[in-house]
Amino acid sequence: MRGRNWDIFCRVIDNFGDIGFCWRLARQLVAEHDLRVRLWVDDRASLNRLCPEVNMADVEQVLQGVAIRHWTSPFPPVEIADVVIEAFACELPESYLAAMAARPKKPAWINLEYLSAENWVSENHGLASPQPRMPLTKYFFFPGFTPYTGGLLREKNLVRQRTAWQADPGNAWQHLKLPPAEAGEISISLFCYENSALPDLLRCWAAGKTRIRCLIPAGQALTQAASSFPQQDLAIGAAFRQGNLSVHALPFLSQELYDRLLWSCDLNFVRGEDSFVRAQWAARPFVWQIYPQGHAAHHAKLEAFLALYCTRLEEPAKTACRQFWLAWNGFGQTGADQSWTAYWQQRGTLATHASQWAAHLSEAEDMASQLVRFCENLL
Ligand code: TRH
User: Which of 51, 153, 185, 253 is the most exposed place for a label (fewest CB within 10 A)?
Assistant: First the structure.
């Protein structure tokens, strides 16, 4: 219902995915569902990287209609919201929980979980977890790729904006403050964790037949690229060419600009969760480096997505895609550099598939709308 109060709690463990996702959700709830949203975040510096307007000095700041609040300890006494989102099992402040339990009309309390294509997700999506110590029930909400999950974040205008952007590539590159690709050159964006396959892949691109320009926002990938070519300058804004590869060091972009970089490139290397989803909305081929977990738990998660993504992909593109992704994640029989040529030979099929996959995903209801409906049913 319009005008309800929502509190979203986000603890930044590491990286940008948790806050990137919460910030995206918060903005969408305000813009498209007319809700009053407070976003509680313990680490505003991470949010500031994604949204440079975030002022580190302010304890409270309203940006794009979202009240951004610093999650401090002890937690300030505040009014309890109608809907309380605990992102990624971050554990609510004790005092806030006690106030929730004392409220005559209990809020809808959601544990918003990580994204996975594994089968167990649909079995757990929406489950209730009555709290033994308190008169409260927490509900599990899982984003996902199938109709039995909570879906994916997708802003109302996303597909329309992307289509318009991709129809005008010259203007798009200018907006990104980058020259257009030269004739016959492909553009690849690179966002990854430290990856032992990266130096060999860069060398393979430099020695390869295809002209490649690799666009790397500041972060681990850029640091690793710089140490792979120690004689070159990779300060932000710098670029160098070696053989058929040119490498461009970009600043870390705002979320809006990063989306547009993904929409502009022929191939995107992404990681974690949020950039992984945004690359799918870019409707271009992409390569995913999954967030590494202990005991190789991420391997099953990677395979689950690959199985889903490749269902409608014909051979030999299917095998080429699987082999390259597995190699990039350290699970392959061969190195990523050895799988590259076979992968990129399937470029046309992969591009058509990426576009069909994005169209297929966009048939589902977006996650924010599903979450709003789910919570309304609880209130
Ligand atoms: O930063 P990540 O590795 O985040 C990870 C994952 O979410 C993982 O699942 C989680 O468990 C772990 O954090 C704690 O990758 P992710 O999810 O892609 O988030 C990156 C965010 O940064 C995303 O919102 C896109 C954004 N981004 C920019 O805004 N500008 C940039 O230049 C780049 C490279 C990324």
Answer: 185
